[in-house]
Design a protein that fits this description.
By secondary structure, the protein is mainly alpha-helical. It is 66% helix and 3% strand. Strands 1-2 form a two-stranded antiparallel sheet. Helix 7 crosses helix 8.
């Protein structure tokens, strides 16, 4: 009971901070410039980007490459399945907040099937039965509620984001129903699985990520552009509203137009 009360107090504090931050996100949405990128914190963001890139070069990339080269694909898939399954209760909560009945049904069916016949989520039994994968987050919930995207930000360790998405990350971190149902150490299994799954993803897409981070003329601008394009596509945002050309090649030299004879 004491643990539950402590978690409830922490949740209330987080919701208050979230509400205040959301006000800033909505205000920022009205100031998006013509190129669809609102980045008033670019100076700070570039410093964080440099930190993240150095961390990736020194630690994340070598660990990810070693992980992907030594761990069998089947075991990687098992970790991914486990992490995905533990996220389904959070997907249900966000689907409920979005009034998305289909999402609520998919998250429920996937969680029940994968937890039972999928051996605690180690096997993606739901997909074997034709139940499609489903994922959402509180950032998308805010989008559905009409909250603006806000400013682009790059977070230490976590990478590219926006004000709205960052608010979503904070809320999602404390509102997964499993966090209230489980005690340590079980409550940390989901976080550990997410980290390992992320390392596996970094390893699988190593060549593409390396090209962006270490071979582009401006890795910060490339990362920002690719993230915003991808996130807006996932949310179904109107490209006309974002003012970013959907056919723009993110690998083009961002300084090419500035070249002079």
């Amino acid at each position: 009971m004491t643990t539950l009360l402590a978690k409830t107090r922490n949740l209330n504090s987080t919701i208050l901070v979230t509400a205040l931050t959301l006000l800033g996100a909505c205000t920022a949405a009205d100031r998006v410039p013509g190129d669809g990128i609102y980045d008033p914190y670019e100076t700070q963001n570039r410093k964080v980007h440099a930190f993240n890139r150095n961390l990736d070069r020194a630690l994340v990339r070598p660990v990810a490459r070693g992980y992907s080269s030594t761990v069998p694909d089947e075991l990687e898939a098992t970790v991914d399945n486990f992490a995905e399954n533990l996220g389904q209760p959070s997907n249900f909560v966000n689907s409920l907040l979005q009034a998305d009945l289909r999402g609520m049904g998919l998250s429920t069916v996937r969680f029940v099937m994968n937890t039972t016949i999928g051996i605690g989520g180690l096997v993606d039994a739901a997909s074997e039965f034709g139940i499609p994968e489903y994922d959402t987050d509180f950032g998308e919930t805010l989008y559905v509620w009409g909250a603006g995207e806000g400013a682009y930000v790059e977070l230490p360790f976590l990478g590219p984001s926006t004000t709205r998405r960052t608010v979503g990350l904070v809320v999602d971190a404390v509102t997964n129903p499993l966090d209230f149902a489980l005690d340590p150490p079980e409550v940390y299994y989901g976080t550990a699985a997410d980290v390992v799954s992320g390392i596996g993803t970094r390893g699988r897409f190593s060549d593409t990520i390396d090209a962006i981070l270490y071979e582009s003329a401006d890795s910060y601008a490339q990362t920002r552009l690719i993230y915003l394009q991808t996130r807006r596509f996932e949310l179904g945002a109107d490209v006309a509203d974002t003012a970013i050309d959907p056919y723009l090649d993110p690998y083009d030299d961002p300084y090419e137009a500035l070249d002079v004879e």
